[in-house]
């Protein structure tokens, strides 16, 4: 309900000035912002946002996105060449959650665990909190609906095989798997990380200082250095939703754990992958170009995440179409847009540029990322606490070029 000082709402306009006549106009309008008026006459100045209003509304595209996955027409990922007979954007996966009203679990699960609240869902799976009866310890139960994986069974097998190998403090641990012959679901008992995910943290934060961002990127970099160097595994879906947050009450600061290995695969040193997959905002250009890719697609996604942490919106976005977004990624052009980057150091910008190199051969590795001077000098001291404002940074629109100064720096990679 809206209460105006001037009385009842008599007129509503979109930000672009179009009158709202019917309820449906709210949903068909290209605008996300609307202005309400009482008896007063609207003025042109009412539709011009000041700097503070622009900042609060400016930064969109940090939103939850479904990932895509499309197999090459030739069966193997190990081919030296890839056909272009399938669409570059792949096939979108439909996200559906398990029916909470009548969940049915096999005896092999209920004998050992009490199942509680749903805490997440994905393309093929739903995640619940569960308590182990014998120890009273809490875990996360990932329920994979194998009926949704027809033709993609290898993704499930690969995820389980990769998780069984992972032993790192910044990677979520698989405790055990529980097969269920009587159902078409697979049950994975995982480490429970109670702090939500980095997407939620970004949405709730007013800003991350460079020290806070460096701490978070250190956790991510260490997870990827282990994944790439010791396990030869590429994650292929690095994004804030897949970075779980360990609350700072358990440590001296907020910590991250990498999760969701549904697209992870082992890759040999001389091998190139060609499967088109990922999440649009974070996907690397070589995946879209279908020229073959390797471990460094994860580093590209790290560059996108660091950019978001420091300003609140991604370096590549489009209000028009996914195809336009992909074209921008392939071109590798982005701006350190003022005033959002006015406070960001040259060293931080340099690291972002090193991670967002279109040429994967010039792009940083996970180890080089960790050894960058900004990472070493900006990490908070052990006794420093993480502090974030609760003002939302989950904005509805990325700033347009008209909102930025003419001297904005463009990075062409």
TrEMBL record:
GO terms for molecular function: ATP binding; protein serine/threonine kinase activity. Residues 69-107, 390-413 are annotated as: Disordered. ATP binds at residue 142. Residues 400-413 have a biased composition (Low complexity). This is Serine/threonine-protein kinase DCLK2-like. Keywords: ATP-binding, Kinase, Nucleotide-binding, Serine/threonine-protein kinase, Transferase. PANTHER family: SERINE/THREONINE-PROTEIN KINASE (PTHR24347).
């Amino acid at each position: 309900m809206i209460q105006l000082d001037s009385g009842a709402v008599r007129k509503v306009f979109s930000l672009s000035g179009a009158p709202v006549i019917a309820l449906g106009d709210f949903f068909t309008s290209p605008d996300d912002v609307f202005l309400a008026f009482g008896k007063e006459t609207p003025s042109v100045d009412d539709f011009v946002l000041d700097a503070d209003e622009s900042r609060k509304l400016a930064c969109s595209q940090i939103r939850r996105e479904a990932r895509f996955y499309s197999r090459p027409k030739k069966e193997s990922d190990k081919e030296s060449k890839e056909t272009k007979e399938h669409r570059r954007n792949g096939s979108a996966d439909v996200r559906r959650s398990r029916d909470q009203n009548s969940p049915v679990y096999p005896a092999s699960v209920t004998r050992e665990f009490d199942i509680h609240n749903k805490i997440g869902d994905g393309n093929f799976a739903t995640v619940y909190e569960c308590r182990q009866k014998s120890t009273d310890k809490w875990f996360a139960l990932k329920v994979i609906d194998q009926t949704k994986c027809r033709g993609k069974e290898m993704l499930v097998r690969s995820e389980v095989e990769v998780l069984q190998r992972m032993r790192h403090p910044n990677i979520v641990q698989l405790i055990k798997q529980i097969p269920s012959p009587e159902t078409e679901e697979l049950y994975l008992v995982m480490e429970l990380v109670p702090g939500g995910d980095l997407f939620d943290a970004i949405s709730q934060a007013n800003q991350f200082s460079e020290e806070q961002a460096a701490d978070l990127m250190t956790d991510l970099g260490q997870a990827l250095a282990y994944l790439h160097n010791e396990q030869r595994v590429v994650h292929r879906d690095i994004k804030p939703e897949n970075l779980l947050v360990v609350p700072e009450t358990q440590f001296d600061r907020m910590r991250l754990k990498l999760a969701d290995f549904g697209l992870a695969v082992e890759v040999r040193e001389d091998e190139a992958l060609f499967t088109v997959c990922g999440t649009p905002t974070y996907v690397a250009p070589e995946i879209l170009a279908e020229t073959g890719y390797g471990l460094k697609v994860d580093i590209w996604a790290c560059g996108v995440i660091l950019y978001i942490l420091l300003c609140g919106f991604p370096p590549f976005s489009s209000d028009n179409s996914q195809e336009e977004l992909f074209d921008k990624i392939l071109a590798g052009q982005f701006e350190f847009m003022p005033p959002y980057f006015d406070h960001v150091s040259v060293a931080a910008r340099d690291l972002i540029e090193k991670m967002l190199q279109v040429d994967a051969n010039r792009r940083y590795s996970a180890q080089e990322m960790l050894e960058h001077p900004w990472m070493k000098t900006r990490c908070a001291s052990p006794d420093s606490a993480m502090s974030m404002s609760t003002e939302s940074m989950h904005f509805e629109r990325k700033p347009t070029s008209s909102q930025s100064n003419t001297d904005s720096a463009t990075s062409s990679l």
